[in-house]
Amino acid sequence: AEVEMMKERFARLLLGEDMSGGSKGVCTALAISNAITNLSASVFGELWRLEPLSVEKKKMWRREMEWILSVTDHIVELVPTWQTFPDGSSVEVMVSNPRADLHINLPALRKLDMMLLECLDGFSKTEFWYVDQSVAMSEAEEQGTPRKSLPRQEEKWWLPTPRVPANGLSAESKKRLQHQKDSINQVLKASMAINAQVLSEMDVPEVYWESLPKNGRSSLGEGFYRCLSFEQFSPEALLATLTMASEHHILEIANRVEAAIHTWKRKVSSRHPHTDGKPNARSSWGGLMKDLVGDGDRRETLIARAETLLLCLKHKFPGLPQTLLDIHKIQYNKDVGQSILESYSRVLESLAFSIISRIDDVLHIDELAMTAD
């Protein structure tokens, strides 16, 4: 049965998810990226509870990830080496080695994967538990006490809510939860770093270049452009104003900053000094060069500041959806190895963020319980 399932999975990848065999299939790189994303959604879902994975789901995750990752065994690079013959003569030949980015990052991602599953396994026996919100509302009405709720549940009333003992969690339990949160936070940072590195190495597709505005200032907006232009630039102070902003607004800002960065980079790389072709234009040539150098330095400064702002934005809001550039890169990427690294690190990043959020939920409910006492 597993062999037949594996054949079906690989057939779907080879046909670009178009099982009809027609011409509507996507490229192999995107098909593999979608396969990893869909597998993660099937196994982990939204992860609203801190509890171990079922044996079936854990087996499914490990089995199908092994199938997908087996593709990387055949992604190699040729490197020159010397081969010596019995007569003492030697000749330079090309040998295949695992590609450097896969050789370095895949073992790291496997380790992060194992750490996340082990963390979930550690929630088998806990002092907290979960109830439906309807139960929590009924109990609060019967006792005449205010209902202990989470900020995210104000609109999503159907989600389960954690409960703790009346006197709160024990000191040992809280210490353990904090230790798990710190550990998973390291996993989150590592997976984010790998994902950012892989995305930075992907080619920017032409469709994104065509969508960019004529100048970075119009992309950023006057307010953000002035903040970047100030002599005393502070990304932390700028981000402090976004604490209460909606996720959609923050994502829009990230898209605008990223668009401005690439607009300026394109102008810096394509700007070349030129003359009007007149032999007596030496004086104007000097002035033009001075203006271009000054303009180039200013753009380099703006690029560096915008990149710092974007990095701080992604670290301050780790659960932020993909930017428009990331979506375009993933969609138009043709490199299978990069696709595997990007999607694998992305789903691990999402899982780590979900675990941290659920731990924060429990600690928040515990704090409310202690306050009520």
UniProtKB/TrEMBL annotation:
Which superkingdom, per the lineage? Eukaryota
Q: Which UniProt keywords apply?
A: Guanine-nucleotide releasing factor
One Pfam family from the UniProt entry?
A: PRONE
GO MF, one term, reads:
guanyl-nucleotide exchange factor activity
What InterPro entries does this protein map onto?
Answer: PRONE_dom, RopGEF
**Per the database record, which ranges form the PRONE domain?**
1-373
Which Gene3D superfamilies does the record associate with it? PRONE domain, subdomain 1
The answer, when asked if DNA damage is one of the entry's keywords, is no
GO cellular component terms attached to this protein's record: plasma membrane
Transmembrane region(s): none
Family annotation (PANTHER family) = ROP GUANINE NUCLEOTIDE EXCHANGE FACTOR 1
UniProt protein name? PRONE domain-containing protein
Source species: Selaginella moellendorffii
